[in-house]
Amino acid sequence: MKHLKDLISRLAIQSHHETVAWRRHLHQHPELSTKEHQTAAFVAQHLTELGIPFRTGIAGTGIVALITGRKVSNRVIALRADMDALPITEENDVPYKSLNPGVMHACGHDVHTASLLGAAAILQQLRDHFGGTIKLFFQPSEEQYPGGASLMINEGVLANPAPEAIFGQHVLPDLDAGMVGFKPGKYMASTDEIYLTVKGRGGHGATPDKNIDPVLIASHIVVALQQIVSRNASPTMPTVISFGKFTANGRTNIIPAEARLEGTVRTFNEEWRAEAHHLIGRIATGTAEAMGGKCEVFIDKGYPFLVNHPELTHQAQQWAKEFLGADKVVDLEMRMTAEDFAYYAQKIPGCFYRLGVRNEARGIVHGLHNSRFDADESSLIAGPGLMAWLAVNKLMS
């Protein structure tokens, strides 16, 4: 295996310039969820050039490709990358800045797609060294419900042939470039969207006694719902309820007839998740009614919490230490962010790990979903190389 490790490392270094070029093209041409048409065409073009067979049009713009080793084996492993961008205006002053106004790869999906293409290029050259099949998922719409993972699963990507395990790689700006992190077991939270419409009676701001103020009611609801976390959730069960949008289109002297709240609830237990939904509805409607108004509650159930298969993740962590060095591999904590990779991990053993992209000396320090997020491109050696190394190790284990 040492010879194979050295070969993968050498190929990852040799192809680094091309992988960076792929990433920069993708970064310059980001596309929103369900609209990844040019991104998919770019991926298909390079898979064709690499001589890798693939299918397009899965869940809209998704692609599944197959790399089959020349040794005899029926085993199948999957690698996944997401392709969509976010509705954010980029503020970075870089040569590869987004050319699409209001759209940006602020979550690193350009790095993910380029890394998987890079891994594909490496694996295609190594077919004499392994048996079995490596299935590549280029997935759309991770950033938008119901999630491209669930749609691709519904269209049969986990069959014909059926992978026995799946790996997913995601950038992490908290880790220095070239480092990776793993967390066996529960890793990322479920995510549900909360939509509340508070209805009152509008009128002049100078005569509040004649109105039923939905702004005041909504404000009380926001505060009241925090007791779910502090007084209803178990102290050992991570739970977040946050509101990021509060709309009440009145004026300085106009109390509107209604106000709208939009937020999220996240946790790591399905029974408690359902109970939290019930409590949100009960407290929101009860608070509104106690103050003379009404509240309509809609909770859009999103991605499940992500569980990394313990044995597979421990294996991957050990293989990463062999490939990168033990000093480049760290343990991660649970996160309240969410990922639709969780759908794959519900069906087959999955390992979702992190690739460091931070470089403080170059000012590459901003978090995900930030208008100044960027990735140190030296990570595009470890990224493709490790994906290829994990795939062949799992096939040969």
Characteristic key phrases:
397 residues; alpha/beta; Aminopeptidase; Alpha-Beta Plaits; 2 domains; eight-stranded mixed β-sheet; four-stranded antiparallel β-sheet; 16 strands; elongated
Task: Walk me through the structure.
This protein has 397 residues and is α/β, with parallel strands linked by helices. It has two domains: 2-188 and 304-396, Zn peptidases (Aminopeptidase, 3-Layer(aba) Sandwich); 192-301, Alpha-Beta Plaits (2-Layer Sandwich), CATH 3.30.70. 36% of the residues lie in helices and 26% in strands. It has an eight-stranded mixed sheet, with helices on both faces. The protein has a four-stranded antiparallel sheet with strand order 10-12-8-13, covered by helices on one side. The longest helix has 21 residues, at 270-290. It is elongated and about 80 Å long. The mean pLDDT is 97.
Topology summary:
Layout: H1 2-14, H2 16-28, H3 37-50, E1 54-58, E2 62-68, E3 71-82, H4 109-125, E4 131-139, H5 148-154, E5 165-176, E6 180-182, E7 185-188, E8 192-199, E9 203-204, H6 214-232, E10 240-247, E11 254-255, E12 258-266, H7 270-290, E13 294-301, E14 306-308, H8 310-324, E15 329-331, H9 341-347, E16 350-358, H10 379-396
Parallel strand pairs: 3-4, 3-5, 5-16, 6-15
Antiparallel strand pairs: 1-2, 2-4, 6-16, 7-14, 8-12, 8-13, 9-11, 10-12
